[in-house]
Amino acid sequence: MAGLISMKRADASIRLRLKRLCKIRGARKHQHRLIAKAKRRGEKYQKASLYYGGGQTRSGKVTGPGLKMPANFCLDSNYAEVSAFLEKMRESLHQGMEKWIAKGRPKSNNAIITKWFDFSTIQRITPSAALVLAAEFDRLRLIGQRGLIAIDVHKWNPDVLSTLRRLGLFEIWEMDPPSYDYLENDSDNLFIIPMRSGHEVLGQAASQLNGEIANVVIEVVKSSLIGKTYSDAELDEIWDDKAGNIYIILIEAMDNVINHAYTDDKINGLRTVKRWWMTAAIDRLRSKLTVAIYDQGISIPVSLPYSENYPKIKGLIRDFLGVEHDIENPRHDGVAIRQATEASRSSTGEAHRGKGLAVMVSFIDKCRDGRLRILSRHGEFIHEKGLGGYVNAHQTSMGGTLLEWEVQL
Length: 409
What we know:
By secondary structure, the protein is α+β, with helices and mostly antiparallel strands. The protein contains twelve helices and 17 strands. The strands form five sheets. A seven-stranded antiparallel sheet has the order 9-12-13-17-14-15-16, with helices on both faces. A four-stranded mixed sheet has the order 5-2-1-8. A hairpin with a 4-residue loop joins strand 12 and strand 13 (288-295). Helix 7 (203-224) packs antiparallel against helix 8, helix 8 packs antiparallel against helix 12 (357-366) and helix 10 (310-321) crosses helix 11 (333-342). The protein starts with a helix and ends with a strand.
């Protein structure tokens, strides 16, 4: 009897080995097919380091050069190139690239990636632009419910890698952030608060972000008060004046996203996850605070006809442009955002609301120096303290709405 059981166990072991062997052979055949297909298209493949869930790295192969990302990934000084890339990236992710991303972790050490993004070409990235980039990957993760793969992380610019790591991009990719020696002492001049996201108006999220900002801001204020001495109570008072306003604008921004940004499950052919994303950064050297919140919704210009204030806003746009507002004309977008800000009112009657976009402008005017920047669809509205507001219309759509506050501390 014991001998019979032993033989059955041996048979099971042999079957398991054969199954594994067939799986390996199948993976190799698939790999050879991919290589042959790449050669027919005239593509070359090369070895790459695949960094994926669990913080582990395996060798693999990629075909051709990756989709190069802008060297200056900034939506301020390089809007045209970055917005055009983001538009192309959205299309790629939803038309073809989700095929390799949706597969998640490679099945073997010899996995081949046929389409990929080359992060090593980025030499500079701002927190706000990084937030928009991370939101696109977060949407794909939420839709596909799969982890992603990072390629040749060791080749990325250290400052770019540090920014993306602190923002929380690797957590979106469902992998442990890389730990390299040169990152252990990365600069503390730019402090980035990890990204938060949600699909509701969350006072807790606004409070937590506000609290983290406060801890760093007070340190910055202390270090900048050369020759001056303030008590902790006086420092708290300096910050409290800003803290209440930041909390209000975060709540107001979240409320606008939830109630106005998403009107359908698909926008411009892309599935939505109906969320907002926000972060903050403090530049210690320049004593500057940046707060940003982003959504992938229909945009402010498109949402205006749904507003009860649209007749008033439409009149303001007509007075400014000299023609009737055309919602289909992207050249009207910047003016539409500006006039919506001027006419901002709310019908909710709640204490912390009722000011809409106007409270965001008011916050800038109360600070020592700063600006509010709104990018929505093709439009841009900037309000700077002491200079008032001005508008732009871009050729490429923002793909949603980005609100950004920059405040001198």
